[in-house]
Design a protein that fits this description.
By secondary structure, the chain is an alpha/beta fold. It has a single domain, classed as 3-Layer(aba) Sandwich (Rossmann fold). The radius of gyration is 14 Å and the shape is globular. A four-stranded parallel sheet has the order 1-2-3-4, with helices on both faces. It has helices spanning 16-29, 44-54, 74-78, 95-103, 121-124, 126-139; strands spanning 36-40, 60-64, 84-89, 109-114. It is built from six helices and four strands. α1 (16-29) crosses α2 (44-54). The N and C termini lie far apart (29 Å).
Length: 141
């Protein structure tokens, strides 16, 4: 992500509107139409503004303990009709629970908790992660 880790910052990624526009541009450049957006951790700063503004352009959304969920209201989440799989590891007792508390306001959500997995649950329990993800993907139209 721009500005995280060793990647150089991108001026447009300073605001939520800029991060939304950045992700929109990435998806357009890749020619993606109605993708499923998987958003672990820090990518929530990009994915959540996009979801709230353009959720209708996504086939599905898979937040994995993303940051930034508390920046939006329950009412904002209620307006999103994108099918969502809220996924996290049961050993992620900080960010995952905060994200769940906020994201459970998405009307078309379901929850998958990976037993014995931490914040990076997809690394801790890759087989369980992929089973949950594939099950969700099969249910999408």
């Amino acid at each position: 992500l721009p500005g995280y880790g060793d990647s150089p910052p991108v001026e447009m990624a300073v605001t939520a509107q800029g991060r939304r526009a950045f992700l929109d541009r990435v998806l357009q450049e890749l020619g993606m139409q109605r993708p499923v957006l998987i958003s672990p951790s820090m990518s929530g700063r990009f994915a959540l503004p996009f979801l709230l503004a353009h959720g209708d352009r996504l086939a599905g959304f898979v937040p994995i303990a993303p940051v930034g969920t508390k920046d939006y209201t329950a009412e904002q989440y209620w307006g999103v009709q994108t099918p969502t799989l809220i996924l996290y590891g049961d050993r992620d007792t900080g960010l995952a629970l905060q994200a769940l508390q906020n994201l459970q306001h998405l009307p078309k959500h379901r929850v998958a908790v990976l037993s014995g997995a931490g914040h990076a649950c997809y690394l801790d329990k890759p087989e369980d992660f992929h089973q949950a993800l594939l099950g969700f993907l099969r249910q999408l139209k």
